[in-house]
Structures are given as C-alpha cells and as structure tokens.
Amino acid sequence: MSFLTRTRPILSLRFRNFTTSLALTHTMHIQSIPMWTGTGDNYAYLVVDDKSKDAVIIDPANPDEVAPVLKDEIKAGKINLTAIINTHHHGDHAGGNNKMLSYPEFKGRPIIGGKDCQSVTKTPKNGETFKIGDINVKALYTPCHTQDSICFFMEDSTGKAVFTGDTLFHGGCGRFFEGTAEEMHTALNKTLAAVPDDTKVYPGHEYTKTNVKFGISVLQSEPVKKLQAFAEKNKETQGKFTIGDEKQHNVFMRVEDPEIQKATGKTDPVEVMAKLREMKNNFK
Length: 284
Description:
The structure is a single chain. By secondary structure, this protein is an alpha/beta fold. The chain has helices at residues 19-23, 63-75, 91-94, 97-102, 181-191, 208-218, 222-233, 243-249, 258-264, 269-281; strands at residues 2-4, 11-12, 28-35, 42-49, 54-58, 80-85, 111-112, 129-132, 135-141, 150-156, 159-165, 168-169, 172-173, 200-203. The strands form three sheets. A seven-stranded mixed β-sheet has the order 2-1-3-4-5-6-7, with helices on one face. The chain has a five-stranded mixed β-sheet with strand order 8-9-10-11-14, with no helix packed on it. It has a two-stranded antiparallel sheet with strand order 12-13. Strand 5 (54-58), helix 2 (63-75) and strand 6 form a beta-alpha-beta unit. Helix 5 (181-191) crosses helix 10. The chain is globular and about 55 Å long. The termini are far apart.
C-alpha cells in the first residue's frame, strides 16, 4: 500500500525501496490533508484507487484547506471524486459538506455517513460494504462519541486501513459525548479489535502526544514508551500504527491488563473503561 502525506509526493511506507515495482501495481493511496493545525489538529483523508482513479474524501470539514487539493488533483486528471464520507456528525468532521457541494467540481456528489451528518444522502447499514474502484469498504458502527459514529475499513490487494474518526486515536479514544463506557468498550475492544491486526489506523485528529502522556501515567510498558518516543519526534503520526499496535500501546484497548486494572482500581472491563476516561478527562 502506498500512502501520501499532506500534499507531497507519494511515499511508500510498506515497500520503501520498491517504488518502481509499486508503480506497476494497482494500489490504494491515502493522502492526509491536515486542517486547523495548531488548534483542532484535524485530518481529512483522500483515498484513491489508482487503477480506476475513483476516490473519496473523508471528513473534509474545512473546505478552504481541502478543496484546493482536490481541485488540483481533478484538474491534473489524477482522481475521479465519487463521494464525500463522514465518520460522524460533529461540525469539525461533517460541517463542511454543504460548502464542498457548492463547488462545481463536487456538485451532486453523494454524502455517505451517519444519519445526523450534514446533508447526508446515504447511511450504510452496520457491516454494509461498497467499493471505491477495486477497494472494498465496510462500514463499522461504533456508537459512543456520537451515536452515528461509523468507522470505515478499507482493503485492496495491497493492504488495509481503517478510518476511525473520533472513536479510536493512536494511544487514545474519543470522549463519550453521546454514549457510555460499555459502548466504547464494544467499539474498541470488540468491533475494532476484530479488524485484522495489520490494518493501519487513520484517526480524525493528531492527538498522539497528549494521549501517550496520559497513557504512560497509567502503563509504563515498552510499547507505550515507544509510542511516546515516536510522538516526540514526529508531528504527524496518522497511519503509522496498526490495530495490532493499538492493542499493545493504547490503554483503552488494554482494559484487562492487570497494571491498568490496578491503576483504575477496577477489574470489570466496562468499569475500567469508564474510570480510564474519567482519569483522562481530568488529566493535566
């Protein structure tokens, strides 16, 4: 799988020394578009099937930063934008839909997302699949941060990715604005934990440094220390870790770890999740 970072040239993360051979392989490309850097630290993601050039844009909440990138790609004949996808209804994820549709280049594009997303035209059922060219996409319901939160698992012959919005972050998870600890436990430790371990994670925000600062206060394990070291050296961490990595360094996915149970004073997984979130909310 090849990936793009920001709007810079293609960087092959998996096969760094084989870009020539990758050019001959049909691959899924993921381009991160940072938004509100230094404040919200959001990410929009452009996912492209390079065979068909079919593409989707995920959570283009700030059109002023996203639209120019897409227009350049369309003008260059590099993409055929087929849809806008939202991970949940919050304004910093779905709030740019109407403005995106106001541009001639994006007019009439379907909006795929939860039922409460701005101008949504299609809400997939839990587990429903669709395609972006040769990329298989599956909608995974993960209610808690919002009740309409959906994670999108994508796979082609070269790799796997999951776009987790504000449900799962590297080393953390979203606040329980519309749900319960039980729902987040299900979302993280049942639904997303069932995704193949080699699936790369693309969260909705760059929160890794603050997440791991809390994580290391709860669990001083080698995986958490490695995540902390990486976050200190890299401003962008999206897509650099997998579901398998999260199971090792994300305290919210380790609710049955004796050390975390000791830190929270709880043993029931749901109660551990609730206490961790409370501790994180109050952490400074």
